[in-house]
């Protein structure tokens, strides 16, 4: 059994070794993709090792080096980080299986570069998850941005290049222009950038309180990956990427790194008690609430399926920010559990969108009428994923909304409860309508028949049973797996709650 302290550097290094192996096996696709899957399996086992250790009460640590006195590149794993690392590594394994089916089905070019970028990005995500201080988090946050840029621009056409410019421009501008000054300012006031349970600001309350809202705002918008409006345009623009990248961005690494960082800053830098006493988080609570409703309203009017799901993600990410800014124990718990539930639900939806793309070359919601008759497994998984995002039991997404409502009640913010209820109704309209029309409405084209056309316009080998025409098996099984996971997680809410209890000051 590997010691948790050793599992930390190994979890950072294994994907990089895998990246090198993928490069060496460029001309041997089967071995190259085998290297991807083996790397994912090893990383997942390391994440499980760390997770089990943290569940047992340990807080494994590892220091890589001290750049200057008081600013080490160091790692320390607490429950939120252990959960994020497990989600990222587990869903990367699932997404890798899906990506193989998708990339082969679409005869995509530059597949070696694609898998290499994925490997570097997941290493960066693990670095964010395990970071012991703001300095370390910032380094891996930036590596994550740079390593995912080739994924966003993978197709190499004008749309991809334009989307890539927005992606890189917004994320780099917010991190360098806002997040970095916030970290420097925090260090100047407190003399540390370490993550400490309860926060580091309370001991410097007199110095911080007058500028607390400004400093918190720098973090809220500087962490652009959290996609809090108006720092969100990078996310819908990134939808030009292949669907496995969209799933990775929205469920596994980038956006989850953003909202994870928001929670870490709220809990371990400011502290929930400090935010509650000073009221510094209240303006950003309402900005998050506005983002939830506005992004949902925009999603309702998007006919492009991936664009609709992208704006849905902007809305759903704001749930996590909202939970942090409520500055209550239940609000934080709602934000933390939303990271897990949203990852399963949204990844399911994006993988289903990609399966439709590969099998039938459909991109618009208006083209999906009757498609459930030829792709019942795909749209069945989509239905479960949508139910979870909406927050309907027995799917995992129901628990975060329950905790967020409790948190809003504890904070005396009854209007926030109304916002959450309206959001659920909007989710029903723009998400549940898709499987309903796929299964129950007449086809958009007279007699929907299997097209056998993939995203690149070439024929792909899918699953053909009678009148059914599903995507290749490797594109169908992963969303079924994650949809099932969203169902199972509903019944394991208490173990997850107990695991995260130290985050809110419990033992």
From TrEMBL:
* Cross-referenced InterPro entries: CPA3_Na-H_Antiporter_D (IPR050586), ND/Mrp_TM (IPR001750)
A Gene Ontology cellular-component term? plasma membrane
Q: Does the keyword Nucleotide-binding apply?
A: no
One Pfam match: Proton_antipo_M
Using the record, list the residue span of the signal peptide; answer none if the entry has no such feature: none
Residues annotated as domain NADH:quinone oxidoreductase/Mrp antiporter transmembrane: 131-426
Please give the name of this protein: Proton-conducting transporter membrane subunit
Subcellular locations according to the entry: Cell membrane; Membrane
- Which organism's genome codes for this protein? Hyphococcus flavus
Domain of life (superkingdom): Bacteria
